[in-house]
Amino acid sequence: DTGVSQDPRHKITKRGQNVTFRCDPISEHNRLYWYRQTLGQGPEFLTYFQNEAQLEKSRLLSDRFSAERPKGSFSTLEIQRTEQGDSAMYLCASSLVQPIPYGYTFGSGTRLTVV
Amino acid sequence: AQTVTQSQPEMSVQEAETVTLSCTYDTSENNYYLFWYKQPPSRQMILVIRQEAYKQQNATENRFSVNFQKAAKSFSLKISDSQLGDTAMYFCAFTRFGNEKLTFGTGTRLTIIP
Q1: For A97, left (φ over 0), alpha (ψ -120 to 50), or beta?
Q2: Could you tell me which residue, B83 or A96, shows the higher pLDDT?
């Protein structure tokens, strides 16, 4: 297992289009998190799953955003009707049920550019 | 709500020197954890060091150590004998006990000069 992988690494899309990102966590990790990082800022929490259940969503996750984790394995984050303000790095992380003190393992992120 | 503040947007030091990155936080919680993460240009966030708030002893990991001042809500990172590979963005992060999400600061861009 080589860690958390995210696909694609980069995505350029036109405003109004839908995009979907994928995250494959470390196989034995049952928690999966999505964060968004804009230029010059630290990552901001979006949502997290424990197995297939979505346990918390940030108010940053508007109705245009949806995340799924079918079967508790990989996760997808979809953004509908993209806006320029959605341009950011989308980071995925995974952890065991008790992430402390082991912490989280982050992926390399998907950079979204909306033109 | 918790907030994390990193007041140094950028820093640079000569290779082999020691550098200290500052972080302050605000919380009403008593049980929490603090982290320093490193994000190199390749972008993957890597855990550098963590501190449990209930522990008085400052955490150390090889060349990395922290100065945790709970009363002052301060959590600085000291990098000794800095190396070129330490060049990265460094983020301070907070999570309260029993919670799962991290609250990050805005980061400090550290450049190690050969």
Answers
A1: alpha
A2: B83
The encoded tokens of residue A28 equal 């034995």
Which stretches of chain B drop beneath a pLDDT of 50?
Answer: none
In the beta sheet, which residues pair with residue B110? B11, B88
Q: Do A33 and B44 touch (CB under 8 A)?
A: no
Three-class SS state of A30: coil
Rounded-to-integer distance, Cα B37 and Cα B66, Å? 12
User: In this complex, is the C-beta atom of A91 within 8 Å of any C-beta atom belonging to chain B?
Assistant: yes
- Which region, left, alpha or beta, applies to residue B43 given φ > 0 means left and ψ of -120 to 50 means alpha? left
A106 touches chain B (CB under 8 A): yes
Contacts of B56 (CB under 8 A, 6+ apart): none
Residue A56 pairs with which residues in a beta bridge?
Answer: A48
Query: Residue A46 is which amino acid?
Result: L
